[in-house]
């Protein structure tokens, strides 16, 4: 279990608790005990974790850092001395303006976003961007066509949606199953395409790109919803990046769009105004009422990532966590089976079957029941593929992962 570090009082040194001492609070200089009711002399972070034994391996919405939850709780009724909650704060107030500007500033710092990119905070989730991307970008060139890499459920949905607005070219031979990324030598890219689209991590099937596709000058668009800020990324290689917050950088309700300025102003005439990137950029994401509380939570998570070493540190931890689970799968003599090609196995979502390649449903149910009794939830695979799926996003700790790893070892010993 994560025993998150306790936010310190002003001027005090940092106090770490428990085994997982590498995780700092979302905001230093704040006494997290305000508004809490643990027994006298007991840290509120320790108190909350001792009374919350659940480990959430959900694919999204996903686990949030406990220090972030505590800070949000502390500030819920009275944000920063305003006397009101962020939940009731006007999105046009100076107080919320500070929140959204801080969130953008943290993103720019963590990702080293160049000045010629706009950062938007929108609604509609990643699925909303399946429509927004073609509505804004497919008209960049006269042919009104786009290239799509389809390597899983989410890129397939995006490609299907884009067909409403122009011609879609799937650049590689159709895959029999979503277990690999086609070799770039097999791709047929269209130089007249307005953009090339791919999903950098497919949560359902556990397929992740470990490289950035080369597009020969065509605008590159990436859905990074499930590995956003889990590793460093060179934003300058992309025309547009989008990511739902509820996996690695916050709670459900807000989607980040990072778009190069020269791509604004090309929306199709049928593009709804709330989906028009140019309109939202000109209005600082305030054309309509934004998801204020979700943006606030994102700012806390981004600060937590910053205080814990940024995306490079997240990458190191995510490699350790995923390797821990894949090593057990690989050493199980076929008892656990991950169907994904080793070259593109996701660090974020580890899918596997139990008992045999196709899965033994009785064993998988027993595995899930046993995990639940041990306080581990949301390990059931996506309904379209079945089996087991462990999602190891940024807030899932090494200790959380070790708990799952130990259980997997015990389970295979009992049944092999």
Give your account of this protein's structure.
Residues 1-40 are annotated as: Disordered. GO terms for molecular function: O-phospho-L-serine:2-oxoglutarate aminotransferase activity; pyridoxal phosphate binding. Keywords: Amino-acid biosynthesis, Aminotransferase, Pyridoxal phosphate, Serine biosynthesis, Transferase. One of its GO terms (biological process) is L-serine biosynthetic process. The chain has 416 residues and is α/β, with parallel strands linked by helices. The protein has three domains: 1-64, no CATH class; 89-302, Aspartate Aminotransferase, domain 2, CATH 3.40.640; 310-415, Alpha-Beta Complex (Aspartate Aminotransferase, domain 1). Helix content is 32%, strand content 13%. The strands form four sheets. It has a seven-stranded mixed β-sheet with strand order 2-10-9-8-5-3-4, sandwiched between helices. Strands 11-12-14 form a three-stranded antiparallel β-sheet. Helix 2 (66-75) packs across helix 7, helix 3 (94-111) packs across helix 7 and helix 8 packs parallel to helix 10 (398-415). The longest helix is centred in the C-terminal third of the chain and has 21 residues, at 310-330. The relative contact order is 0.15.
